[in-house]
Write a structure and sequence with these properties.
Elements: H1 11-27, E1 40-45, H2 49-65, E2 70-75, H3 77-84, E3 91-94, H4 107-128, E4 132-135, H5 144-149, E5 154-158, E6 169-171, H6 180-189, E7 222-226, H7 238-249, E8 254-258, H8 262-271, E9 279-281, H9 288-296, E10 300-303, H10 307-314, E11 319-322, H11 329-332, E12 340-343, H12 369-387
Parallel strand pairs: 1-2, 1-4, 2-3, 4-5, 5-6, 7-8, 7-10, 8-9, 10-11, 11-12
Length: 388
């Protein structure tokens, strides 16, 4: 394990971070760790929606024990609409760092977007006056300097990347067999804040915004399948999805295919070309509250490492998660769902953390349809026995 910047492997980036920290140390010494009466707290997570979903669950756990506390969140614009719908969050701020920005635009446009959103976020943080700010994201980039610029008295983060001298409370990061949301919770607990049981946490939306006209979650038993994931290398082959759906079709459940974006729509269109009446695409049709309601009331959920899978885990519905071998299972499997089967191919190279330089032709995604169908049968049988 690399002791300095343990979650960063890129040599050029590590050199930049060393230079950054050298210059930062000349600007300021480490902040004083002092007791603060926290009435407003900021949680920062700039990553994809699945990561941010768990920070919303953390906000829910904080709010249950501290109902008078105001919670703000600093997120990427890709997650902002979802966070604005959350009843536990009082303030939403946006910063689109170019490293986190997956949009297909030039690096110059990404840099301009970052400058614009960061400047606006700094103004908002100063105006609100947070008592504490927690950087829940322990990979590059850090947000320590923005917290420092905003004048937040108590600034908390992990020591795994750049900017440590700008924090007032620094927590050591190491690889433990705990979930990502529990890493986030450790930062909150370091402030002696009481939080509710994370396994019981949820995401409270201001309004349900359901598809009431179709009533897809009221009068039908159905299975939800989410075919997409954030990185193409973690995808399952379309032929296997087609075979799986053909076999599940014989179970006489309605099948809803969910997804978002052009890539997932193309795959779902391919899977629905035969126009069978009980296989229905909901791709690009659902808001996050709607997606949550659809998943929450499903008979079974099947998906990859995706945002939709984390929603299914929250509501503890029967779930099958097909995971890539490069991922740390403990950090990123669906959290605290006893009804979840994680399917993952065991290889000597698990867990490599580095799928883009795989030397085995992505063999860890060579998972058979039979293996998934066995898990489907087991979960449906278990569910029918529980209902008896």
């Amino acid at each position: 394990m690399i002791k300095i910047y343990p979650v960063v492997r890129n040599r050029i980036l590590r050199c930049y971070m060393r230079l950054y920290d050298f210059i930062a140390a000349l600007m300021v010494s480490s902040g004083e760790d002092k007791k603060v009466d926290i009435k407003r707290i900021l949680l920062r997570n700039p990553a994809a929606m699945g990561d941010t979903w768990y920070t919303l669950r953390l906000a829910n756990a904080i709010k249950k024990k501290n109902p008078d506390m105001e919670i703000g969140m600093l997120v990427g614009s890709w997650s902002a609409d979802m966070v604005r719908e959350c009843a536990d969050v009082s303030y939403v701020h946006v910063e689109d760092h170019p490293i986190m920005n997956r949009r297909r635009i030039s690096i110059w446009k990404k840099m301009c977007q970052w400058y614009k959103t960061r400047r606006q976020a700094l103004r908002e943080l100063k105006a609100i006056g947070y008592d504490a700010a927690i950087d829940c994201y322990y990979y590059y980039p850090s947000c320590a300097y923005l917290f420092y610029q905003a004048g937040v008295s108590c600034r908390v983060g992990y020591d795994s990347r750049e900017g440590n001298c700008f924090y007032t409370k620094l927590i050591h990061w190491d690889i433990f067999d705990i979930h990502n949301v529990e890493y986030q919770a450790e930062l909150v607990k370091s402030l002696s804040l009481d939080i509710d049981d994370l396994t019981l946490s949820s995401v409270n939306f201001n309004h349900c915004d359901c598809l009431s006209d179709e009533k897809i979650y009221i009068d039908k038993e159905y299975i939800v399948i989410a075919v997409g994931t954030g990185e193409p290398i973690r995808e399952w082959k379309r032929e296997k999805w087609a075979s799986l759906i053909d076999r599940i079709y014989t179970y006489n459940y309605t099948i809803y295919l969910v997804g978002a974006g052009c890539r997932e729509k193309e795959l779902i269109d391919y899977l629905t070309t035969r126009k069978r009446p009980n296989i229905i695409s909901l791709c690009n049709l659902l808001s996050v509250p709607q997606l949550s309601e659809v998943i929450k009331n499903a008979k079974l959920f099947i998906g990859l490492e995706s945002f939709a899978g984390h929603i299914a885990a929250t509501y503890k519905i029967p779930q099958i998660s097909i995971m890539h071998g490069s991922t740390n299972k403990y950090h990123w499997q669906p959290y605290s769902n006893d009804n979840c089967y994680v399917i993952r191919k065991k290889l000597p190279c698990n867990t490599c953390y580095y799928p883009s330089v795989c030397a085995y032709n992505n063999a860890c995604m060579d998972i058979s349809v039979d293996e998934v169908i066995k898990a489907v049968d087991d979960l449906l049988k278990k569910d029918s026995e529980d209902c008896m």
